[in-house]
Recover the amino acids of this structure.
């Protein structure tokens, strides 16, 4: 198991390095940053001056190396727009995003897994149909629309929940539901399919033949095997929630990292965008790594491969 | 469990008129129709028949392991005087694994891939008693050694995927024996294994059965195995018990044309002439969806006559132990059988 973890950790590190290099070079392909920074009325001399000031005249590999060395020590440079250190800017915004992401994925898992299990135990029952309806609706509704509907219903008509901001836990209820509901259908359907598959397998019959109770068969013998693909999916969803909750953050005016990314891209704030891409990809890599470790714990066959 | 002589004579298992209907989209599938047999402690019954004849369904019905939408019916299906058709889920659960165990056909997929061999062996015991883990562990090691697994203690921490098919089937046998069951059902336990392993596993099962004085139901295709281990034989065809009796009588005087056909399909030392062509039974098993009338073997039977469409009587031999279901008397078939063997030679 330790061997497996070390191997995966090494692999994760290599992926992170590759991602950082690709994201760094992609930004150079999107045009000359010096011209963008100088603005519309700038002369050629201004552009050259800016290029020298920010070091854009150096070879790209040199720029990447110096950026990487600084980044490893937590220094992502200064935001062109906010005139603040990027690291403190991101740290500030990340707490909101992480809280929202954790709430969202918890909401998704806590509704999707039980529903999927019940739907698999009683296929084609009322509960199964209801779960299917919920998941189709969740897949079909765009997040921004669902968010707006919730605001209209619970903030404007009923006045139960605040429409925007981050002041209390009540502000996070609607964003959590919108974000979680987006991830719920896939997790639910995968849990249902996994359980149906596992429940018809020979080792479940063996467990029953041993005299195990239905509860024990479901949870000890079936769910542990059925949940394995769900773990991988949830990890990707979690990464998505932390990096891509831009829509939800803008609707509910939660100024998180997703919103910051949107602002920085539109303002050509290079250091911030680069740092955010690195942070978001690190999230994906971390969660994929954690999912791999969790899966290896759940399924001994993965440890040896 | 005390086993004095008077208890030995009472059948451990008594089945009368077991019927299993399966609802399908095309109609009701009459998978098992009117099966009856008794089994005493320490006896081995071999159920023989081709795929789809209802052998496995019968054994799953005994274990209470048929699917949710399949309910077996029977005039009587008693295990040690407990009626199984009306038993509660809890009663069945307490019997399963403790007093009646089952070994399945597929050792490769019958063990849970997520748990160690030790966990799964010990679970069989802890489900049915208050045994502590240490005792359960000792029992697991004892049984692994009994089924011929070397380095038993180190196997406990291994996972199913680290074992070969033969080893997994030995683990399955050990698991079925954890609670010293009175009845063991083995459903084609060697079908999925290498030929070289098959004989070992069957010998092991037969030895353990004798040693622990268990009743055993062995489902098999292999008539050679039947000849060696069975006390009684039940021949199933298309959901019916066409012939049943002590093994010697069945092999010496097969009475149903299907049984005769089966025996003609295998070479028997001393009986089959060297160089003669082995028999086959032409045709396929008929569909059992919808109403099933008369003898189901008539479509493949060389003795079929219009009377085979009617009610088929159950013949009983003078000894009272050998029965078969056919309109023909075995003496009338004798000449035909010899003739057809002659024709094949």
């Amino acid at each position: 198991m330790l061997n497996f973890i070390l191997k995966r950790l090494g692999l994760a590190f290599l992926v992170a390095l590759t991602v950082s290099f690709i994201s760094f070079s992609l930004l150079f392909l999107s045009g000359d940053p010096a011209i963008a920074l100088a603005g519309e009325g700038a002369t050629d001399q201004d552009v050259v001056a800016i290029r020298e000031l920010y070091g854009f005249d150096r070879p790209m590999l040199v720029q990447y190396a110096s950026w990487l060395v600084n980044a490893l020590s937590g220094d992502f440079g200064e935001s062109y727009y906010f005139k603040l250190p990027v690291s403190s800017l991101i740290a500030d915004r990340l707490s909101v995003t992480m809280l929202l992401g954790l709430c969202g994925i918890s909401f998704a898992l806590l509704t999707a897994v039980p529903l999927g299990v019940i739907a698999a135990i009683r296929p084609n029952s009322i509960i199964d149909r209801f779960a299917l309806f919920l998941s189709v609706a969740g897949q079909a509704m765009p997040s921004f629309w669902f968010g707006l509907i919730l605001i209209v219903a619970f903030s404007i008509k009923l006045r139960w929940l605040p429409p925007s901001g981050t002041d209390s836990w009540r502000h996070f209820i609607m964003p959590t539901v919108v974000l979680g509901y987006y991830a719920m259908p896939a997790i639910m359907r995968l849990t249902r399919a996994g359980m149906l598959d596992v429940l018809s397998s020979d080792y479940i019959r063996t467990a029953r033949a041993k005299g195990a109770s239905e509860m024990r068969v479901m949870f000890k013998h079936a769910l542990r095997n059925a949940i394995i693909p769900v773990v991988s999916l949830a990890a990707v969803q979690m990464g998505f929630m932390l990096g891509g909750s831009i829509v939800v953050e803008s609707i509910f005016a939660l100024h998180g990292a997703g919103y910051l990314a949107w602002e920085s891209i539109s303002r050509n704030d290079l250091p911030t965008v680069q740092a955010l891409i690195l942070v978001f990809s690190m999230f994906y890599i971390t969660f994929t790594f954690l999912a791999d470790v969790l899966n290896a714990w759940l399924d001994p066959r993965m440890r040896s491969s | 469990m005390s086993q004095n002589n008077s208890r030995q004579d009472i059948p451990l298992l008594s089945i009368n008129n077991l019927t299993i209907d399966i609802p399908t989209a095309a109609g009701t599938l009459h998978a098992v129709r009117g099966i009856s047999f008794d089994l005493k402690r320490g006896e081995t019954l071999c159920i023989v028949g081709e795929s789809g004849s209802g052998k496995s369904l019968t054994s799953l019905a005994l274990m209470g392991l048929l699917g949710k939408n399949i309910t077996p019916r029977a005039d009587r299906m008693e295990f040690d005087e407990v009626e199984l058709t009306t038993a509660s889920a809890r009663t069945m659960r307490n019997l399963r694994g403790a007093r009646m165990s089952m070994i399945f056909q597929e050792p490769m997929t019958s063990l849970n891939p997520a748990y160690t061999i030790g966990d799964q062996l010990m679970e069989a015991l802890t489900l049915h008693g208050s045994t502590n883990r240490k005792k359960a562990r000792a029992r697991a090691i004892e049984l692994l050694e009994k089924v011929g697994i070397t380095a038993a203690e180190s196997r406990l921490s291994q996972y199913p995927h680290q074992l070969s098919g033969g080893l997994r089937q030995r683990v399955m046998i050990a698991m079925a024996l954890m609670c010293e069951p009175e009845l063991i059902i083995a459903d084609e336990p060697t079908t999925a294994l290498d030929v070289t392993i098959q004989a070992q596993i069957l010998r092991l099962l037969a030895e353990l059965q004798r040693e622990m004085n268990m009743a055993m139901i062995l489902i098999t295709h292999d008539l050679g195995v039947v000849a060696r281990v069975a006390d009684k034989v039940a021949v199933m065809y298309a959901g019916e018990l066409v012939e049943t009796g002590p093994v010697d009588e069945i092999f010496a005087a097969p009475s149903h044309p299907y049984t005769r056909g089966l025996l003609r399909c295998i070479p028997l030392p001393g009986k089959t002439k060297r160089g003669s062509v082995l028999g086959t039974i032409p045709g396929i098993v008929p569909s059992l969806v919808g109403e099933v009338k008369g003898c189901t073997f008539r479509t493949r039977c060389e003795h079929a006559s219009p009377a085979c469409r009617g009610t088929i009587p159950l013949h009983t031999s003078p000894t009272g132990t050998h029965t078969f279901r056919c309109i023909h008397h075995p003496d009338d078939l004798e000449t035909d059988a010899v003739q057809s063997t002659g024709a094949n030679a």
The CA atoms of residues 77 and 150 of chain B lie 40 Å apart.
